[in-house]
Write a structure and sequence with these properties.
Layout lengths: L5 E19 L5 E20 L7 E7 L16 H13 L5 E7 L9 H17 L5 H11 L12 E4 L4 E4 L7 E6 L6 H9 L10 H8 L4 H7 L1 E2 L1 H8 L1 H10 L6 E2 L6 E5 L2 H14 L4 E8 L7
Parallel strand pairs: 1-8, 3-4
Antiparallel strand pairs: 1-2, 2-4, 2-5, 2-11, 5-6, 7-10, 7-11, 9-10
Helix pairs in contact: 1-2, 2-3, 4-7, 7-8
């Protein structure tokens, strides 16, 4: 079978429905236990073969309107999609020159995993485009070298993440879930949040099993909402007064949680109609930021 010369991929955002920090590691990372779901908020990658090109990889970044995307999204070797290309080329011994056109819809500095998702999609697309035939397991091992979040985009959704988050396994979900996401116009350093957490009093880690069980039996929205948890949330609010203000402003409308180390907040709602209504309510408050209504999604990179 011949390989395609162009491939288009959707790269979904993720939400941490549960996030617990269970300890520290000798390598400086933290041990975590997290339950994630992918959602219908997508970046898009178009990867084209460029035979005869002198440059191995060319990256162009545009926003959802087709306008060139400015910083903080890098267009050089610091971009995770570009790093994925070089790692893939190193692993396969060679890789054809390509152009990657990246349309950014997932906000950056959000805890939504946009860069990690782009990297996973790039690995998947390069494997199809160049046709070296790496298995999903082999791609997942490469993904873990790029970042803790990258492997989960090869996993069925929802998923449990352990270790640094890179050790994943699928979880059962009896129904689709609807969410509203709010991203304020500022970011927060992940390293700063973890440093602040390390300075806080010791705590007994919570288990993710109650949430996993509730997802599997299709529990009602109210029960699921009560099981959502993020260990980093209180710390992030303490060190970022602006983030705390977002929680205070949105709190009367719905119970919002932090995803990852932020700064995106999300809430679980009963269906698309409630999501659309809440999105409209938030926009009417005038609070600066972007609001998205979305639904849980399957990974486009995971084997069916």
């Amino acid at each position: 079978m011949s390989s395609p010369s162009r491939i288009l991929l959707n790269a979904p955002a993720k939400l941490n429905l549960f996030f617990e920090v269970t300890g520290t590691r000798p390598d400086g990372y933290h041990e975590v236990e997290t339950v994630t779901t992918l959602v219908t908020l997508y970046d898009q990658l178009v990867i084209r073969a460029r035979p005869g090109s002198e440059r191995a990889v060319v990256l162009s970044c545009i926003d959802a309107r087709g306008e060139p995307k400015a910083a903080p999204l890098p267009g050089d070797g610091h971009n995770l999609a570009v790093k994925a290309y070089h790692l893939f080329a190193e692993s396969c011994g060679n890789a054809m020159p390509v152009e990657i056109e990246l349309t950014k819809r997932i906000p950056t500095e959000a805890g939504l995993g946009g860069g990690s998702s782009d990297a996973a999609a790039a690995l998947f697309g390069l494997n199809r485009l160049g046709n070296p035939g790496l298995t999903t397991e082999e791609l997942t091992r490469l993904a873990a070298r790029l970042g803790s979040d990258v492997p989960l985009f090869f996993e069925k959704s929802p998923a449990l993440g352990l270790g640094r988050g890179e050790v994943t396994c699928p979880l059962d979900a009896a129904r689709e879930l609807d969410f509203v996401i709010f991203k304020p116009p500022f970011g927060l350093s992940t390293a700063a949040v973890y440093r602040a957490l390390d300075d806080e009093p010791r705590y007994k880690p919570r288990p993710s099993a109650p949430l996993a069980g509730a997802l599997a039996r299709g529990a009602e929205t109210e029960e699921l909402s009560g099981l959502l948890f993020n260990r980093l949330e209180a710390t992030a609010r303490r060190i970022s007064p602006r983030l705390d203000t977002c929680f205070e402003t949105l709190g009367p409308l719905a119970p919002f949680r932090l995803t990852g180390s932020g700064t995106a907040l999300y809430t679980l709602v009963s269906g698309p109609d409630e999501a659309a209504g809440l999105k409209s309510e938030i926009e009417k408050t005038g609070i600066p930021g972007k609001v998205f209504a979305c639904r849980s999604a399957a990974s486009p990179l995971s084997p069916i």
